[in-house]
Every structure is written in structure tokens, then in C-alpha cells.
Amino acid sequence: MNSSPAARLAGRVALVTGAASGIGAATARRLSAEGASVVLADIDADGAKKVAEEITAAGGEATGTACDQTDPDQVEDLFSPASPLRDRLDICVANAGWGRFGPFLEIPLPVWRKTFDVNVTGTFSVCQAAARHMVSLGRGGSIVVTSSCGAVNPVALFAAYCSAKAALSMMVTVMAYELGQYDIRANAVLPGVTETAMTNAMLADGGKAYTEAESPLGRNGRPEDIAAAVAFLAGDDAAFVTGANLLVDGGATAFSPGWFGTDFRRRHETAWMPRHAQWSPGPA
Ligand SMILES: NC(=O)c1ccc[n+]([C@@H]2O[C@H](COP(=O)([O-])OP(=O)(O)OC[C@H]3O[C@@H](n4cnc5c(N)ncnc54)[C@H](O)[C@@H]3O)[C@@H](O)[C@H]2O)c1
């Protein structure tokens, strides 16, 4: 039986990583609004604590904590005997991520390594530690990973980021395969362009008008759009959903010429440019 959305997560305890900003902060707010008690983790400890204070001021239960997910010891600490997650963990939203764009021929190795370290290895550490904790507590649980539409849609200049998110999407599918026997579900959300700190630069100088015009719903994502999908996957309304990679992108992946383009008749040139620079907006 489905409960009312307002109380769907009453009594549940959730961890959200990358919760200081953007999609993670909106997700923490949404899970709290649906009744969950939330631990917000982020490399930006002050930011996580600030969002937690806002949630508490609004009547929710939340704690902000520091965690650089590329450090396995800091990830382990999230579940230590001193942690509010010690005795209960129903929901883990492994959301923290990082990316930079640049031509494949020029990607510096440190950028490639950091992209994989934060997005793949860091998210693996969070998911493995959360799953081990859920298994030891014996109550099952729901793990939701923030992948990207870039996991399924090749985006020029995003080779590192798209490869990392594709790896995550497959990791989630295998997690669902192995963890089902413990009543742990594992799913991924694949956001399209969502207006957060991560996309500020891309959406400047006409980028916003372009991405809106190229999205079937005529707008970019808002962090709250992604948070709503995460809340669905986290709760019992998704009790029979595991191993899913859910696009939350306003249909943009179904119709996507990509963010960067070039004239392929020009040979041996680095002439990639934002498509909005080649595109002139007509009247809305
Ligand atoms: N914004 C988009 O268009 C978009 C699209 C697809 C996927 N995503 C994914 O959504 C997730 C959230 O991104 P966002 O758009 O809200 O961006 P954001 O920059 O607002 O938030 C990312 C958060 O992750 C945190 N973080 C970065 N490295 C970390 C680390 N090593 N350990 C812990 N926390 C760390 C940051 O401090 C920040 O609070 C990311 O995984 C991102 O890849 C975003």
C-alpha cells in the first residue's frame, strides 16, 4: 500500500553525499520533507552543515558532516559508532560528483584521474560501505546513485565525465544483481542539464537559452526535479524497482545533438565550440 507522499519516508534514516549544494541539497530537503531523518555529507563541511541547519529550522531532523569521498577512511567514519547512522540506515544517496570539460586530445591525466577518483572510486566506497552497513543491520535498504545522461549519451569534450558516469551506471546494475538477496535495492538517476553550480559556466553566454530550446520540455532541470525522482526510488513506491537507470532529463537525451559541435568537413582542426555559439535564438 502506498503512503501519502508527505509521509512516504517517515521514520527512515538517509545519507546524502554531495549534499552541500545543487541536487544533493535539494534531495536532502526533499527526503526530509517526506519524513526522513537525513545525514548530509560533503567535502564542503560548512555547506553541508548550513543546509542541515536550514532543514532543522524548517522542523526536520538533519546533521551535516565533512566527508571527502575519495578518502575511504572518511567514508568509513560516516558509519562509525559515533555516527547518527550507527543503528539505522534505510537510504543512501551517493550523489557527490565532479567534472571538467576539454578536448579528448588535451585531457590532462590529473583531470582524468580526479574524474574517476571522485565519481567512480569515491561513489564505489560510499555504496560499498553503505551496503555493508545495511547488510549488517539486516533491514534492507535503498541505494540511489547520481549518474548522468552522459552515461548513455556521448557528449563531445566530456570523455572523462561520460566514461565515469557510464561506469557508475553499470556498477549500480551489478549492485542490484548482487544485493537483492539482502532486500537492498540499487538504482541510478541520470539527470540531464540541471541548473546548479556545476553547470553555471556552461549555461552562461546563451548556453541556457540553447539547452532550453533543445529540450523537448522547453526548460533545463531544476535540482528539485532530480530530488523528486530520487525520493521515489528511495521509498516503498519503488519497492519492485532495482537495477534501473532512470533518465530525468526532460526528454533531452531522446533528442540530443550535444552541447559542443564542430563542422566535420574541417579536417585536423580543434574547432569545437558550444552549439549555442553556432545557433541563433528565434522568438520563444
Ligand atoms: N547539474 C547537472 O547538469 C548534472 C547532470 C548530470 C549529473 N549530475 C551529477 O549530479 C551530482 C550533483 O551535482 P550538482 O549538479 O548538484 O553539482 P554541485 O557542484 O552543485 O554539487 C556537487 C557537490 O559534490 C561535492 N563534492 C565534490 N567532490 C566531492 C568529494 N570528493 N567528496 C564529497 N563531496 C564532493 C561538492 O562539494 C558539491 O557540494 C553529481 O554527481 C553530478 O555529476 C549533474
Key descriptive features of the protein:
Rossmann fold; alpha/beta; 284 residues; 15% strand; binds nicotinamide-adenine-dinucleotide; 9 strands; 7-stranded parallel beta sheet
Classified in CATH, the superfamily is: NAD(P)-binding Rossmann-like Domain
Number of strands: 9
Strand and helix order: EHEHEHEHEHEHHHEEE
Which ligands does the model contain, each kind named once? nicotinamide-adenine-dinucleotide
Q: What Rg, in angstroms, do the CA atoms define? A: 19 Å
Main beta-sheet strand count, sense and barrel state: 7 strands, parallel
In which range does the helix fraction lie? 25-40%
pLDDT averaged over residues: 93
Strand order of the largest sheet: 3-2-1-4-5-6-7
GO molecular function: oxidoreductase activity
Protein name: SDR family oxidoreductase
Pfam family, one: adh_short_C2
Domain Ketoreductase: 12-196
Give a quick rundown of the structure.
With 284 residues, this protein is α/β, with parallel strands linked by helices. The chain is built from eight helices and nine strands.
Give a structural overview.
By secondary structure, the chain is α/β, with parallel strands linked by helices. The protein has one domain (5-250, 261-278): NAD(P)-binding Rossmann-like Domain (Rossmann fold, 3-Layer(aba) Sandwich), CATH 3.40.50. The chain has 8 helices and 9 strands. The strands form 2 sheets. Strands 3-2-1-4-5-6-7 form a 7-stranded parallel β-sheet, with helices on both faces. The protein has a two-stranded antiparallel ribbon with strand order 8-9. The longest helix has 29 residues, at 109-137. Nicotinamide-adenine-dinucleotide (NAD) binds at residues 17-18, 20-24, 42-44, 47, 67-70, 95-99, 118, 122, 146, 148, 191, 193-194, 196-199.
